[in-house]
Amino acid sequence: MRDFTLTEFWVIASGLWATLLLSGIAFLGGGLAGLGVALARTAPVKALRLAAGVFIDFFQGTPMLLQLFLVFYGLPVFGLKVNVWIAAAVGLTLHAGAFLGEIWRGGIQAVPRGQSEAADALGLTYWSRMRHVVLPQALRMSFAPTVGFLVQLIKGTSLAAVIGFVELSRSGQLVSSITYKPLLAFGLVALCYFAICFPLSRYSARLEKRFAIGN
Questions:
Q1: Is residue 115 part of a domain?
Q2: What is the pLDDT of residues 174-193, one digit of tens each?
Q3: Could you read off the pLDDT of 25-47 as tens digits, one per residue?
Q4: The domain containing residue 36 runs over which residues?
Q5: Interior angle at CA 201, CA 197 and CA 202, nearest 5
Q6: Are 179 and 4 in contact (CB under 8 A)?
Q7: First and final CA of the chain: distance in angstroms?
């Protein structure tokens, strides 16, 4: 048994950094994927809508834990060797892409139909209409739930520990097993999560209230 020293604090801080970095990668990658999914879900081509629908149904209908397992153990079957960083990033990115795609699809469909009809009357193409008319309004309306999903994504990174990724929760577990002070170790981990997620949750609620008043 070891005392709780600066080294243990550093282990937890390293886990916190890994959580923030993984969350950022997954959110940015998922944002790009989600934008493509949202556009496909609202595209005039039926095949694109069906493909995007299947993608969303799979990732919303299966646990994130299973998705991480499929990426970590599935990619090597196809000859792709991945480490835990890549596996966790890919798994969480796909998960985020499905959820963000559905959030932004709702925002796109919430834009008044008259906006698209006016753009058609002006002779704008589909892509010009989406870029200059629909998407700016849709993303604005979807901003609050997007921030809310980011909070869930940050907390969901703890599941990456099952494939060997040392993030915040796993670092707390390691420190607890060394020092035999689980209350202190996991208390610090909980404070770290709270310090990240609580301000984001409040910001999301404030945005939702502001946009509701604006509408």
A1: yes
A2: 999 988 888 999 999 999 99
A3: 999 999 999 999 998 998 888 99
A4: 6-214
A5: 120
A6: yes
A7: 59
